[in-house]
Design a protein that fits this description.
Elements lengths: L1 H18 L8 H15 L1 H4 L4 H7 L2 H12 L6 H40 L5 H31 L1
Helix pairs in contact: 1-2, 2-7, 5-6, 6-7
Length: 155
């Protein structure tokens, strides 16, 4: 059920961003590319069940994404905005700069294990490696953008 709900969410969000590209401050094209990579990545544990836990951890970033979306729809300079902003920062950095890089190592280990199991390095988990590294690089880029934005607001 959760897997289907996530796929539906990503498809609806992709259509929404395609129709209203200005809602994606980092650029609609890169967010849509992120969605395509993520949607395809979501199929890896569908075929390799032993990686379901990995996808569950990888999708934790949607928590901070949801908080960012909620925060964007709340009036600034209110207690609710301040609370949501703190929650964004509390979830953003540990997940995107902590868990995601760790998942890069884990997916490489799982890729090697699975490749030995199936007898070839050409398999679906190879896409998981590429996707995890791509998503981690995007998370690092968006984290740098966020840090620069926070610095600019301070000055």
């Amino acid at each position: 059920f959760l897997w289907k709900a996530f796929v539906v969410y990503m498809l609806i969000d992709s259509v929404w961003i395609a129709l209203f590209p200005r809602i994606a401050p980092s650029g609609a094209k890169i967010v849509l590319a992120h969605h395509v990579v993520t949607l395809l990545y979501a199929f890896v544990p569908f075929y390799v069940r032993s990686l379901s836990w990995h996808m569950g951890i990888a999708l934790l970033n949607e928590l901070s994404t949801a908080l960012v979306t909620f925060r964007r729809n709340v009036q600034m300079d209110t207690p609710l905005y301040d609370f949501l902003h703190k929650l964004v920062l509390l979830t953003w950095f540990p997940i995107r700069l902590g868990l995601y890089p760790m998942l890069c190592v884990v997916i490489l280990i799982e890729y090697r294990r699975y490749s030995l199991e199936v007898g070839t390095y050409v398999n679906i988990v190879a896409y998981g490696v590429v996707a995890q590294y791509f998503l981690t690089m995007l998370s690092i880029k968006w984290s740098i953008d966020l840090i620069n934005k926070l610095k600019a607001k301070k000055n």
